Amino acid sequence: MSDISNAMPPVQFTAGEDVKIAFFARGERGAAPPVVLCHGFPELAFSWRHQLKALGDAGRWAIAPDQRGYGLTPGPADVAAYDMEHLTGDLLRLLDHLDIERAIFCGHDWGGAIVWHMPLMHPDRTAGVIGLNTPFTPRAPADPIQILRMRFGDAMYIVHFQTPGVAEAVLEADVAKTMSFFMRRPPAGQRPSGGLSSARAQGEGSTFALVNMVAAYKLEDDRRETFLTPEELQVFVDAFSASGFTGGINWYRNITRNWERSRDLAQRVDTPALMITAELDAVLPPSAAEGMEAFVPDLETRMVVGSGHWTQQEQPEQTNRLILDWLDRRFPLA
User: ∠43-47-49 over CA atoms, to 5°?
Assistant: First the structure.
């Protein structure tokens, strides 16, 4: 992996168990609960480099793991080992390793789905939740994969991911091309999206067909701006060249399993919560967070203006300001 010593603190690992979790931490233990930063797909703990520094500089203890199947944290071969019980369980093991009773969990993309489950599955270990782009959504009335297939078609990326090996073959054929496709700002002039609440028109082909888009992608034709330096991009390229994409995609392959196993799970978050939306996220737009207060009574919602999906990297100053403002009011330092 590329040298990230200038951007990240030294890597550490949890002890024992079958999966040793790699994590990075800044700041020191204090009276306020620490903040655990959970990345999404296809990302790494490195995605939180700006927040680790800002939180640490502000006197907060911030911890960012490479989650199961990503970066320096290995992933088992069994697909079921990536369900919500295992993913939230990894965060508990991280807390136990660091002798932390309760933490504030901040998650982006898939990390957001995990952190909203922490107060449902492990309320005694959850002090607060910060969702970045990913809103809390109540349990779907039917299998989410079938809903997505009906709305968006078989090539919609989450549906496409369900078949082992197919998406990996495309994404791993040229990892540099794949990461260059993903890690971009929205196109100039992009307007707010309807996200996953929309649906394709009758007779229209699959929408959100990201795997097919990666296969057809030509870097030389891409006019979107990047938010990464070449050295930062190389960190992602090196990591996914080493790990592949199967571990991260296996999280998607548990969506039906998670839905089935959540039948009796309460659908109410009873901890302080902050929802940060991104104005131009095409998949998880601000409209996706509307109505959350019915399930998250102690909720504040803020928006990062001008940001696409990769909010904490695209607009780190706005993101950091919103996080720290909420933390200072809800979890003040002693």
Answer: 160
C-alpha separations of 284 from 9, 97, 171, 193, 287 in Å: 30, 33, 22, 8, 8
Active site residue 298: no
Q: What is the pTM of this model?
A: 0.95
Dihedral class, residue 152 (left if φ above 0, else alpha if ψ from -120 to 50, else beta): alpha
Domains of the chain: residue spans and CATH: 12-330 (3.40.50.1820)
Query: Has 309 been annotated as catalytic?
Result: yes
Which whole number is the average pLDDT over 32-44?
A: 98
Give DSSP secondary structure letters for 45-113: GGGGHHHHHHHHHTT--EEEEE-TTSTTS---S-GGGGSHHHHHHHHHHHHHHTT-S-EEEEEETHHHH
Phi, psi of 275 (to 5 degrees): -110, 120
Give the pair of three-digit tokens for residue 311: 């909010």
Q: Which of 108, 117, 160, 309 is catalytic?
A: 309
**Residue 243: what pLDDT?**
97
Q: What is the pLDDT of residues 99-122, one digit of tens each?
A: 999 999 999 999 999 999 999 999
Give me the catalytic one of 66, 83, 90, 109: 109
